[in-house]
Specification:
Helices cover 30% and strands 21% of the residues. By secondary structure, the protein is α+β, with helices and mostly antiparallel strands. The strands form 8 sheets. Strands 1, 2, 3, 4, 6 and 7 form a 6-stranded antiparallel sheet that branches. The chain has a 6-stranded mixed sheet with strand order 18-21-22-15-23-24, with helices on both faces. Strands 13-14-10-17 form a 4-stranded antiparallel sheet. Strand 6 (117-119) and strand 7 form a beta hairpin. Helix 3 (68-89) packs antiparallel against helix 4 (140-159), helix 3 crosses helix 5 (166-185) and helix 12 (492-511) packs across helix 13 (516-530). The longest helix is centred in the first third of the chain and has 22 residues, at 68-89.
Length: 566
């Protein structure tokens, strides 16, 4: 600490680049603090710091390190605590640019594997500091206050077991573990999703993911769908189990259909205590499918849904720079199946009507030889029969889907009712008279081999440029990849990790071309073994684990992607 103090006194008042002298490692009480990167300007991205303490000195009981889920839930808790304490301090200097900022990359409602805290034989926390300046002159005394008083205080209050609320930590870790274990049980129970009784599904607003606290109706399962799942910490949990196969969610407007589907979309993640969805889980391979006008499609076999396009356009290897609603939705499904999706989540409101249904009257008016699209209604059952992929659909306008549904859930004032028997009776009473158009097989799911060189991160004189522009946009070299329709991304740190995953994948792909699924699976398995740092060339704490499904979705949206024609 004295060495750092003397450096700061020496550079006080000098030009901002003098801060480069503080880069290095220092002993700060029980902690080893490292200044890993010094910003070149007060207006640039803040400086990156890290600090560590041996596990034995931090004092945390061994129970928090016995499994990957417990370790990353502990890391998430410590990240949130540091963030909370730093936000209470605020900026202590009125200098230029980002002067006085102390911050850490922190999540919202989801508990995700991150590299803001890395746990090995020590606990290392990574954060950023805006080194203070007046104009572009070093404010050495303010820097002393931040680095030698405030940061050490934050470290003590965050990384020492004696300083934290032990009950809050225990609840945080145990609820994450419960969700993980419950999710692993779904397939063995013949379920694709589970919603615990008492869950609060509505959110505060469309832009606020916290639970609605006033007026929200607690979830209660219909008895016919109620199942019990054993959680290691919560014990027996009762709630609605959604079985494998085809499930319809129906009901009037504003009664909770889309709210339930959104909850199921995010059931692939673990949630913090108090979120309201802590005991809602969905199979890991669930993916939201929608239409996406204007997206790029490269080399996708959409022939199970679309054939005989005018102009003899090849739908076995379909490419376009400006997809229609129906071709984009068909491609989104086939791309998801290609990389291992096990459950499709579909909302009628965000789907292409002509892709979803062709009723009897339209079949009479437009003969099949004039219609290249085989609607989803004729493929959804075959998809389950041939590949074991289930589907949950929110449906408000087309009763034709009652013919293919295994389960029908009606949402009434945010409460579910099992109306499967009633729906089947109505289907028999009022036959649609439409003719199935899907044949007796779903069709092939083809794995593609992308060319790694077709996705370049180079931009101008800079070797590689990878930057997340919010959750829904990725800057990769000269490309801006629009991820706004990849709806299960929840954190900008995931988007950033997607960019670095693609960089690693493209390097591997240039050396050894492999199928998209195989290449990405290898990277994600390494991430799970060694941590998110395997994606980086330098130390940082701003990544959160994405799913393979979302990384593949980003690659598929690159304009300029090249697929080998086999």
């Amino acid at each position: 600490m004295q060495r750092l103090r003397s450096i700061l006194k020496r550079i006080d008042g000098k030009g901002y680049k003098a801060y480069k002298d503080i880069k290095g490692t220092y002993r700060v009480g029980a902690f080893t603090m490292s200044v890993d990167h010094v910003q070149g300007d007060p207006f640039a991205s803040p400086s990156r710091l890290s600090a560590s303490i041996p596990i034995r000195d931090a004092g945390f009981p061994g129970e928090y390190f016995v499994s990957p889920i417990r370790k990353y839930a502990l890391g998430d808790f410590l990240t949130r605590r540091f963030d909370h304490l730093a936000s209470r301090i605020g900026r202590i200097t009125k200098g230029s640019g980002k002067s006085g900022l102390i911050a850490i990359d922190c999540g919202k409602q989801e508990i995700l594997p991150r590299n803001s805290v890395v746990i090995t034989d020590s606990i290392e926390i990574r954060f950023v500091v805006g080194l203070p300046a007046a104009g572009r002159r070093v404010l050495g005394r303010d820097a002393e206050l931040i680095l030698l008083e405030l940061v050490p205080r934050l470290l003590k209050e965050t990384l020492l077991y004696s300083s934290i609320d032990r009950d809050s930590l225990r609840k945080h870790v145990e609820i994450a573990e419960d969700q993980e274990v419950m999710r692993e049980q779904l397939a063995g129970l013949g379920l694709v999703a589970f919603v615990a009784n008492g869950s609060v599904l509505p959110r505060a607003s469309g832009v606020d993911p916290r639970p609605l606290l006033s007026g929200a109706v607690p979830f209660v399962s219909p008895k016919s769908l109620e199942v019990e799942i054993e959680a290691p910490n919560s014990g027996k949990v009762w709630g609605m189990g959604i079985p494998e196969g085809i499930t319809l969610i129906v009901g009037g407007g504003y009664h909770g259909k889309s709210t339930l589907l959104k909850c199921l979309e995010l059931g692939v993640y673990n949630h913090i205590p108090g979120d309201g969805r802590e005991l809602v889980v969905t199979v890991p391979g669930a993916i939201k499918i929608r239409s996406e006008d204007g997206r790029s499609i490269v080399g996708v076999d959409i022939s199970p849904f679309i054939r005989n396009l005018p102009g003899n356009k090849d739908t076995n290897f379909f490419s376009t720079t400006n997809a229609s609603g129906s071709t984009s939705q068909a491609a989104n499904i086939m791309e998801a199946l290609e990389v291992g999706a096990e459950l499709l989540l579909v909302d009628e409101d965000t789907s292409a009507t002509n892709f979803m249904i062709r009723d009897h009257r339209m079949q009479e008016l437009v003969s099949k030889d004039k219609e290249p699209i085989t609607p989803f209604i004729d493929k959804v059952r075959l998809l389950y029969n041939d590949y074991g992929v289930s589907t949950i659909l929110v449906m408000g306008g087309s009763g034709d889907y009652l013919d293919v549904a295994d389960t029908v859930i009606l949402m009434d004032n945010y409460l579910p009712r099992d109306v499967t028997g009633e729906a089947k009776a109505i289907a028999r009473k009022h036959p649609t008279n439409r003719k199935p158009e899907g044949g007796n097989k779903f069709g092939r799911v083809r794995e593609r081999v992308p060319e790694g060189h077709s996705i370049s991160a180079q931009k101008g004189s800079k070797k590689n440029k990878v930057e997340a522009k919010g959750v829904n946009s990725l800057l990769y070299g000269r490309n801006v990849v629009d991820l706004s329709c990849v709806e299960q991304l929840v954190d900008v740190a995931q988007t950033r990790a997607i960019g670095y995953s693609i960089l690693k994948w493209s390097e591997n792909q240039k050396k050894e071309p492999r199928s998209l699924r195989s290449g990405l699976k290898e990277i994600m398995e390494r991430v799970d073994r060694e941590g998110l740092d395997v994606l980086l060339l330098y130390k940082a704490g701003n990544l959160a684990r994405p799913r393979l499904l979302e990384i593949a979705a980003a690659i598929n949206r690159f304009r300029g992607l090249v697929i080998r024609k086999q």
